[in-house]
Fold this sequence. Notes:
The complex is a heterodimer of chains A (about 100) and B (about 325).
Chain A: E1 8-14, E2 22-28, H1 32-43, E3 51-56, H2 68-76
Antiparallel strand pairs in A: 1-2, 1-3
Chain B: H1 21-32, H2 45-64, H3 66-70, H4 79-104, H5 110-118, H6 136-156, H7 162-190, H8 194-213, H9 225-230, H10 238-255, E1 266-267, E2 274-275, H11 281-291, H12 295-308, H13 310-333
Antiparallel strand pairs in B: 1-2
Helix pairs in contact in B: 2-4, 4-7, 6-7, 6-8, 6-10
Amino acid sequence: MSEPKLPLWEVFIRSRTGLAHKHAGSLHAADATMALQNARDVYTRRGEGTSIWVVPSSAIVASDPGDKDVLFEPTASKIYRHPTFYEVPDEVGHM
Amino acid sequence: MYTQALNAKDDAPRTAGIEEPEKGARFQARVDAEDKVEPNDWMPEAYRRTLVRQISQHAHSEIVGMLPEGNWITRAPSLKRKAALLAKVQDEGGHGLYLYAAAETLGVSREELIDQLLTAKAKYSSIFNYPTLTWADIGAIGWLVDGAAIMNQIPLCRCSFGPYARAMIRICKEESFHQRQGYEIMLTLSRGTPEQKAMAQDALNRWWWPCLMMFGPPDSQSQHSDQSTRWKIKRFSNDELRQKFVDATVPQGHFLGLTFPDPELKLNEATGHWEFGEIDWEEFRQVVAGNGPCNRQRLQQRRKAHEEGAWVREAAVAFAEKRARRADARQEAA
């Protein structure tokens, strides 16, 4: 098949105002306008969204899952970043 | 099921022994611990290949599945029924697209997948090779075919491969509308004139056995089940899912006042299961092999749609390229 390939886009949908856009899936489209229209038809047929972002998949930079131990190692040892690390006497009540 | 041709032999080379065994063991341990596998994670080649085949067959089934139902859109008996059927067929198209996208995360391109379908290298579910002769068939498909699909798809929501599981969650949510839409058509016909009820009965008679075949060959003959179960791609065996479907569906059919085309169908009081007669596996083999009533027509229709849409895809790409060139030129001028 000698047909030109349609680029891949990632679709993010905001389900309600006040919430963040969340990854919903991906689709193929020639340009941004077509990607938005396709995203509406493929991912919001039942009122799932109030706003859509489409991003060329090639523009996304991702960390390598293979590096996750190294990448996230610094956080593992810092338990003092969590509120439960600190002791507050019961008498003080909710804090 | 929608991927029943997986039960056929896989002719790709066996690479299992070549890969580092410790990686394989670590992978299996992750799967055993119900950890989800994501596209960039290491996975055995056979796992990847099995998933590409299964997910793409599933996607092809959704796409080809639009054809038997699409056959009745222009002839639906009312505007309400027409709108609902149109929405359902559109959903099937959407399901195909979610699934193609999930398969693509495994490193296969959309174009390759479509090419495999159009050249008949890839299979789709045997059920879509049966014709939709009357409006009652639309009811029977929603109630029985989608009902059988749901039985199979709910456990797939917990499949070990993340993108497939996520696609299945979306699909299952939408699929329950399909089954209810179909059952309501059957209910309306069953409560209608004697001719309408006879039409519903005729549809049930024709779709019942092919629906039982959707779950694939009996466990004693299924070749891929064991490995797929170990990898947590498959959670229940063909026979287990088939029995669940029969148990759920028979009382629904009796509520309609219809009978099932199986003289051996009877409730086993001791087990609580409905026992059913022998399935004609030769018919199943013939349909999977391409000799069903509509195999040729379905592929011809898909090819025609693909060819007639080619200019749209070419024009869209040409337009996008032109716009990009002009934007570049404007930037250079500025």
